[in-house]
């Protein structure tokens, strides 16, 4: 269905607000660049971004997690979730979207989940005809992204910018 970018971002902001109260990490939503309304399965998109943000907050001690969306060319949109966290070593990058993939490290022991979050993100992205990816530098942070082919609408008569 059609949905407004501002609604997606404010829903995500509301979802994570309680988690941020005792957190020294800021969760920042950038104003969407060149796109306001999108036609896609917003529940799948929201699920993927929720997973990215939850990982980013889990693996970041201090600094920020920044969520952005920008139009790429005529028919693509790129969402990114960038953190200033522990990062991922190059040799582990290729596998993070695999089932049960978790980077073994002492710091991470207490942060363990099932290792299925990103595998599900990749499957959802495939269902949307898009793809997920990651860039990372150990000790500096990671950027997870979702690229979708999409019908775009620049006009959004009733809504302006992110509140
Ligand atoms: P689950 O999501 O099922 O609770 P999980 O978070 O460990 O468990 P994934 O979300 O699939 O599993 O992530 C896989 C692994 O990729 C993580 O265990 C972690 O090692 C690494 N990872 C994911 N996101 C980040 C991030 N933002 N920074 C550093 N490492 C990350
Ligand atoms: Mg996870």
Automatic annotation (TrEMBL):
The keyword Transcription regulation does not apply. Its EC number is 2.7.13.3. It is an enzyme of class 2 (transferase). The keyword Coiled coil applies. It comes from the Bacteria. GO terms for molecular function: ATP binding; phosphorelay sensor kinase activity. Keywords: ATP-binding, Coiled coil, Kinase, Nucleotide-binding, Phosphoprotein, Transferase, Two-component regulatory system. This is histidine kinase. It comes from Xenophilus arseniciresistens. The chain holds residues 124 to 286 of 286 of the full protein.
């Amino acid at each position: 269905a059609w949905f407004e970018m501002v609604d997606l971002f404010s829903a995500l902001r509301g979802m994570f607000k309680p988690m941020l109260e005792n957190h020294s990490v800021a969760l920042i939503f950038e104003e969407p660049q060149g796109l306001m309304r999108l036609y896609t399965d917003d529940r799948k998109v929201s699920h993927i971004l929720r997973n990215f943000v939850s990982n980013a907050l889990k693996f970041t001690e201090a600094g920020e997690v920044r969520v952005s969306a920008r139009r790429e060319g005529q028919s693509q949109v790129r969402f990114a979730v960038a953190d200033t966290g522990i990062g991922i070593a190059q040799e582990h990058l290729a596998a993070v979207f695999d089932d049960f993939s978790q980077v073994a490290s002492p710091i991470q022991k207490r942060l363990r989940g099932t290792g299925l979050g990103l595998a599900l993100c990749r499957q959802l992205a495939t269902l949307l005809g898009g793809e997920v990816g990651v860039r990372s530098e150990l000790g500096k942070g990671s950027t997870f992204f979702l690229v979708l082919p999409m019908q775009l609408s620049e006009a959004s008569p009733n809504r302006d910018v992110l509140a």
